[in-house]
Design a protein that fits this description.
Blueprint (H helix, E strand, L loop, with lengths): L1 H4 L2 H12 L5 E2 H8 L3 H13 L3 E6 L2 E6 L6 H10 L4 H8 L5 E7 L1 H4 L8 E7 L3 H15 L3 E6 L1 H9 L3 H8 L3 E4 L2 H9 L3
Parallel strand pairs: 5-6
Antiparallel strand pairs: 1-3, 2-3, 4-5, 4-7
Helix pairs in contact: 2-5, 3-4, 6-8
């Protein structure tokens, strides 16, 4: 969906800046992280600064760019980037390499749209995957996002048992905002009712 709305370079620039709204980046950092050409990134940053979407501040020999919290579209852009190119698509792509995942979603500060510089990406996974496979699959995604991905893994039987017992952690997580990666709300309900 996001690919149809925004060109790749702009999407990657927005994903970086709005995925780390408390941080400022200079041009070479943005080029390196996004994997886009220097000229294209410079053009996008210039246009976004002129439009009031990002701030531009000169420090020494470098110009730093940061998501502008005073931009009227700041909450919407931040949410959109976190749910798509900035976070969910990257984690979803990593999970596609892992067999046996029946349900997965991001929870915590990222899903609430309130990350800070230290926030990791909390992912709850239900399935027959192994923790080792998840860690291996998430390693490249962590480099791309610049954030640690912390998986919480349950087998379907464990998940159903804990939901049935109203386990404190799961009850809280299931009641909070989520960014779905694999499955949907119906799958949460199905897995919570039965281990089969």
């Amino acid at each position: 969906m996001i690919e149809a709305l925004l060109p790749r370079t702009r999407r990657n620039v927005l994903a970086l800046l709005f995925g780390h709204p408390d941080e400022a980046f200079y041009l070479r950092q943005v080029v390196r992280v996004t994997g886009s050409g220097r000229g294209a990134v410079a053009r996008e940053l210039g246009e976004l600064a002129e439009a009031g979407v990002v701030t531009r501040e000169r420090k020494g020999n470098s110009t730093y760019y940061q998501a502008d919290p005073t931009c009227p579209l700041f909450p919407e852009l931040k949410s959109m980037m976190l749910k798509t190119a900035g976070l969910a698509d990257v984690v979803r792509a990593a999970l596609s390499e892992v067999k046996g995942v029946r349900l997965a979603f991001i929870f915590g500060s990222m899903a609430k749209g309130m990350p800070d510089v230290r926030s990791d990406v909390d992912v709850l996974i239900v399935g027959e995957a192994t923790f080792v496979d998840l860690v291996r699959a998430f390693r490249p995604a962590q480099g791309h996002l610049g954030r640690e991905i912390t998986p919480t893994l349950y087998t379907p039987a464990e998940f159903a048992q804990k939901v049935g017992a109203r386990h404190h952690f799961l009850t809280r997580v299931l009641a909070e905002p989520k960014i779905m990666l694999v499955g949907d709300a119906g799958e949460i309900e199905r897995l919570g009712r039965s281990a089969s």
